[in-house]
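Archive transcription. Copying these from loose printouts into the bound notebook so they stop getting lost. Printout 1 of 2:
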Amino acid sequence: MVENAQSKNQLFIDIDEGKIPKRVPVYTWMDITYIMQYAGVDLRKAQWDVDKFKDMIEIGAKSFQSDINPATFTRIQPVYNILGAQNFVMSSEGQIQHPEITGMGPEDYDEMIADPYKYTHDKILPRLYKNLDTTPEEKAKVFAKAFKAHSDIFGQIFAHHDLMNEKYGLANDRVGCQTVAPFDQVADQFRSFTGISSDIRRCPDKVVAACEAVTPMMLKAGVKPHSSRQKRTFIPLHMAPYMREKDFEKFYWPTFKALIEGLWENGAAPLLFVEQDWTRYLDYLNELPAGTQMMFEYGDPKVIKEKVGKKHIVTGLYPLTLLARGTKQECIDKAKEIVDILAPGGNYIFTFDKVAINIKDANPENIIAVNEFVKEYGVY
């Protein structure tokens, strides 16, 4: 059966509406840097060549047998260059890395809590982006230039995605915007992993207040005019697996749950990237509003299906590492095992456990073989 864009979109719409689709939808995520390496271009140069992004989008659309174009743009180097980013820097090989950097000292909690918007603008951003550490007039110019570049580049990306979806019969991208769990925001961009780990012992009340203070910011970032079940708010979850459960209950969960409930109340359906192993917290996740999509990195698929798969949409769990080193048959056998566990009853989209970033992360031939297999095998 020949499937067009409309029939593939319907697979995901059925999932979002709690119906069992005709077959398991296949959603492969890979950073544009993976596709650039697959195409054989110089990664260090290609991330600057905005005009050639459309070629990479087309290669993603026609090559990997995903129901949605796998080309994902998360880090736009020209914008980071305009801002003078310290928190996202390009390595010698061309990969964008996130070094541990502290944007806020522990002595600044009170100031940040009092007005997180003002503090972020006045203190955090100039520390993370050196070109904003200047006069108000120059800062405004840098902001305007970066915002214009960001808007222009993503405008081109979205337009070409639409063209390629029509040309190759692909479903629409499911991600409409991104936000961050409040505790992760305080940890990742403000205090760093080391800093927040110390703070929850030394000044726990201020950490709680800081998470509460930034929650409205995170909610605002996660709601757009186009937000819907089909255009979801992507949220990568970072810190929870590294915390003791009692610390998770106190510092992470309350504001994270409030954020997710707030998104749903404002018409924005979340898509969570559940990083590392959240087995300890599956019962918490099941408390979230029904229909939340959860892309799991690690865990027992049977337990995850039983704990959250009846209420929520489960994705992930197929090991990217197997695609890197396994034979084609080993990869297909694993796909069958995962689909047999997660597909019954619906609420399942086939994805890998991680986003492919480097060409070494996965053998392209294995990706294609697995995606083709799931499309043929995962019929309800």
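Printout 2 of 2:
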Amino acid sequence: MISVRNRLIDLCVALLVTGVLVLDGIHRVRTPPFWQFATAAVFVVFLLRRRYPLTTALVGVALSWFVPTTLLPPTFLLYNVAARRGPKWPTAVALGGSLALQLALHPLTSLAALESTGVVSVGFIVLPLLAGLWIYQRAALLDALRGRADQAERERDLLAERAVAAERRRIAREMHDVVAHRVSIVALQAGALSVRAPDEETGQLAEVIRESSAAALTELRDILRVLRDDVPEPSALPSPTLAGVARLAGDLTAAGARIVADLPEPLPQVPDQVGRAAYRIVQESLTNATKHAPGAAIHLRLGQEDGRLVVEVANPLGASAGLPGSGYGLIGMRERVTLAGGTLHTGPDGAGRYVVRAVFPPEKGTP
């Protein structure tokens, strides 16, 4: 497909060449017969030179007998063939036609004729041929460099994907070998304790621990499958939503935590991404509260203010339970809230409480 830019270039070159031929014909005393028609034909030939380089070169050689400046069209058209086809047989055919025209116009009848023919051949045949071949080789080199650059970019992306896949598999192995093993031990010990509990309350707490450990193992297996198989998201368990917040608070209450939940009935309708983010915010906040303020009352509130979903978890500042943390809880919460289009504020409120407050605008966070 010839671009508009190339068409304009062809038009300018055609006008330039035919303009020179017309001016030369006007100022000549004797001109070849039918030179006006031949000049018009040269104009058409130059418009088609990019699409049919060899054909237009041969036609240009034939038309040269009828135009005033005989060697001008073959010179441009020989360069065109060499630049389009390179060192191949079309260029050789066009070169042969130009040489035949040169010998027909300037026969080698004497040494002086040989010298003049050689000079003319260098200017009107050799130089255009070399210039066209240079342009062809330059374009071929640029194409080769672009191909190498594209290949290098594809190889770089492939190596990056392999490195990411290898790192994901390594993380999956570590999680399976360490985390899954430890959680399995907790589940087994909790199950044994629930069977041999000395009283009913201890048995119930042990059963809650066992169920939580089993659920954690199920979620962990789903996460490991995501890491190893690169699936879009876990499918073994339903995606957490705003409706799961009540069950989350109930599980922690059954495990001995003091949670005061203020949840509206019915729960507000929010996009899936906002629901997932809100659930994870509550989950992380309740976990942090039970670690850093064990035994204290934890206040959980879900509500709407001016059409915005508000999630708030507050607990008194107290002595930590000494449980280790990953150090990435607040970072993860902030990332989730930001991706859902909301804002997050954490820290003491000046009244002896630590507050986590997330606000999600209704127009943000659509899935």
